[in-house]
C-alpha cells in the first residue's frame, strides 16, 4: 500500500498485541487529577510573571483568550478520546482520520511538545526549589540552579526532579496516579492560601496602564509583547487536559471517565487561573511580578506573610512535579504507541509484566527531559512547547470534522455541541496564537519537523506495521 493511502480503520485501533497491552487501572478521579495536575503548575506559579512582563495587567485577558481556545480544543479531544479510547491521543486520531504521514507529523510534534513541557516545568520547579533552600538557610550555588543560557552552568535540581518523576512513573500507572492525586490537593490548598491573603491587598491602581504594550502581538527583540503575545506564551498554562487523552487505554470506563477527566479539569482550572491572576496583579505591580522566578511567593513576602510565602514555595516544590508526571506520562505513551505501530523501534513498546507500564520508554523520556532542562532557559522552552501543542490541537479539531463526515454513524459516547463552530474556533484560534509566537520559535518548530519528515522517509515509512502488512 502506498504510504499516502495508509490509514487505520476505527475497528483496528482496538486491536493490540498482547505483549503491548496497557492495563485499565484508572478511574475518573485519577484522570481528573491527572488533568488538573498537568494544567495547574508552572503556568500559574511561574509564567504569570513572564506574561505580566509581556502584557502588563492585560495579561488577565491573555488568560481569557488562551482559555477560550483551549476550551474548544478540549471539547474536540473529549469526542475523539471517547470515540477511540486508545493510547496515542492526537497521533492515533490522525492515523484513523488523516493517514500515516499526517499521523507521523502529529506524533513527532507531540514528542516535541511533551518532552519540552516536562523540561519547562522542571526548570520552573528549580526556581522554587532554589527559593525554598535559601529561605531555610541552605546556600545552594547559583551556578547550579540555571543552565548556561540563563547565566549558570547546569540546572541540577531540574535534572534531579525529571529523573525522579520518570522513576516513579516506571513503578506503575495506578501507583503514580495515586501520588499525583495527593500532590494535586497540596497544590490547590496552596493556591487557596495565596488567594485568601492577596485579595485583601487588592489595589485597582495596579491595573494602570492596563495594556502598556497594546492588545496585538508586537515583536520586540526575540519576544512578542502585547496581550496576544502574552496569550501565545500563557497558552502553556492551560493545556494538560490532552495528557488525559493519552491515558484512554488505561481508563476503566472510557466513555464516562474521559469526559469527566478532560472537561472537568479544564473548567476547574480556568476558574482557578482567573482568580489567582486577579489576586496577584491586584496586589502587586506587574513589573515586580515579571522580575521574579517565583512570583506568587514573592507577592506574599511583599505583603509581609513570610510564613505563607514559605508554604507556597514548599507546595510548589512538592506539587509542581505533578505537571512533569502528567506530561512525561503522556510522552512515554506517545512514544509507546508509535513504537507499537512500527514507526519507532518496536522493542520500545514492550510493557513490564510487573508494573504494566512501558518502563524502557519512560526512562528514555526522563533522560531526554533532564538534558533539556539542565541547559535551556524557561521562556524559550515554553514557547517551543506551545508551537507543538497548537499544531496538535489543530490536528484534533480537523480529525473531529473529518470523522463527522466519513463516519457519521460511529458510536460517540460524547458528541461535541456545535461541532463545526467549536472545531473552527480551535483551528483559527490556535493558528493565530501560533503566528503570535516569536519567529525563532517558529523556525525551531519547522526545523524539528523537517528532521521528522526525513526520519519518516528514511526509516518509519518502511518499518510501519501497515507497510509490512
From TrEMBL:
Membrane topology designation: Multi-pass membrane protein
Pfam families given in the database record: AA_permease_2 (PF13520)
Subcellular location: Membrane
Record InterPro entries: AA/rel_permease1
Keyword presence, Isomerase: no
Signal peptide: none
Domain of life of the source: Bacteria
Keyword Transmembrane: yes
UniProtKB keywords: Membrane, Transmembrane, Transmembrane helix, Transport
Transmembrane segment boundaries: 26-48, 54-77, 103-125, 145-170, 182-202, 225-248, 260-281, 308-330, 359-378, 384-403, 415-434, 440-459
PANTHER family given in the database record: CATIONIC AMINO ACID TRANSPORTER 4, INNER MEMBRANE TRANSPORTER YGJI-RELATED
Protein name per UniProt: Amino acid permease
Amino acid at each position: 500500500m502506498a504510504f499516502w493511502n495508509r490509514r487505520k480503520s476505527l475497528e483496528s485501533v482496538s486491536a493490540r498485541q498482547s505483549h503491548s497491552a496497557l492495563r485499565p487501572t484508572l478511574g475518573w478521579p485519577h484522570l481528573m487529577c491527572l488533568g488538573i495536575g498537568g494544567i495547574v503548575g508552572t503556568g500559574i506559579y511561574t509564567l504569570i510573571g513572564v506574561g505580566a512582563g509581556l502584557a502588563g495587567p492585560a495579561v488577565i485577558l491573555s488568560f481569557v483568550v488562551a482559555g477560550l481556545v483551549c476550551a474548544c480544543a478540549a471539547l474536540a479531544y473529549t469526542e475523539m478520546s471517547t470515540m477511540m479510547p486508545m493510547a496515542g491521543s492526537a497521533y492515533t486520531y490522525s492515523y484513523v482520520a488523516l493517514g500515516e504521514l499526517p499521523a507521523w507529523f502529529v506524533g513527532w510534534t507531540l514528542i516535541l511538545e511533551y518532552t519540552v513541557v516536562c523540561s519547562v516545568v522542571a526548570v520552573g520547579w528549580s526556581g522554587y526549589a532554589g527559593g525554598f533552600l535559601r529561605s531555610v538557610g541552605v546556600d545552594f550555588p547559583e551556578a547550579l540552579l540555571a543552565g548556561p543560557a540563563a547565566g549558570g552552568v547546569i540546572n541540577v535540581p531540574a535534572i534531579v526532579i525529571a529523573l525522579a518523576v520518570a522513576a516513579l512513573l516506571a513503578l506503575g500507572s495506578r501507583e503514580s496516579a495515586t501520588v499525583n492525586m495527593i500532590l494535586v490537593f497540596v497544590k490547590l490548598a496552596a493556591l487557596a492560601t495565596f488567594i485568601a491573603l492577596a485579595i485583601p491587598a487588592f489595589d485597582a491602581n495596579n491595573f494602570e496602564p492596563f495594556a502598556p504594550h497594546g492588545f496585538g502581538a508586537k515583536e520586540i527583540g526575540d519576544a512578542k509583547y502585547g496581550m496576544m503575545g502574552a496569550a501565545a506564551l500563557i497558552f502553556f498554562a492551560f493545556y494538560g487536559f490532552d495528557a488525559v487523552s493519552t491515558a484512554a487505554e488505561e481508563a476503566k470506563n472510557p466513555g464516562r471517565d474521559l469526559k469527566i477527566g478532560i472537561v472537568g479539569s479544564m473548567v476547574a482550572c480556568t476558574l482557578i487561573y482567573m482568580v489567582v491572576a486577579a489576586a496577584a496583579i491586584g496586589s502587586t505591580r506587574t513589573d515586580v511580578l515579571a522580575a521574579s522566578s517565583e512570583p506568587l511567593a514573592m507577592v506574599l513576602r511583599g505583603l509581609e506573610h513570610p510564613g505563607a510565602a514559605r508554604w507556597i514555595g514548599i507546595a510548589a516544590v512538592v506539587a509542581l512535579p505533578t505537571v512533569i508526571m502528567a506530561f512525561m506520562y503522556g510522552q512515554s505513551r506517545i512514544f509507546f504507541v508509535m513504537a507499537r505501530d512500527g514507526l519507532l523501534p518496536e522493542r520500545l513498546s514492550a510493557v513490564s509484566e510487573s508494573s504494566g507500564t512501558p518502563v524502557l520508554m519512560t526512562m528514555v523520556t526522563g533522560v531526554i527531559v533532564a538534558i533539556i532542562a539542565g541547559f535551556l532557559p524557561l521562556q524559550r522552552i515554553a514557547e517551543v512547547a506551545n508551537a507543538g501543542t497548537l499544531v496538535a490541537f489543530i490536528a484534533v479539531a480537523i480529525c473531529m470534522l473529518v470523522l463527522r463526515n466519513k463516519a457519521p454513524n460511529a458510536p460517540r459516547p460524547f458528541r461535541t455541541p456545535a461541532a463545526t463552530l467549536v472545531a473552527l474556533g480551535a483551528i483559527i484560534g490556535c493558528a493565530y496564537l501560533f503566528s503570535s509566537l516569536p519567529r525563532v520559535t517558529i523556525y525551531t518548530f519547522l526545523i524539528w519537523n523537517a528532521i521528522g519528515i526525513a526520519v519518516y522517509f528514511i526509516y518509519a515509512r518502511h518499518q510501519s506495521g501497515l507497510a509490512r502488512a
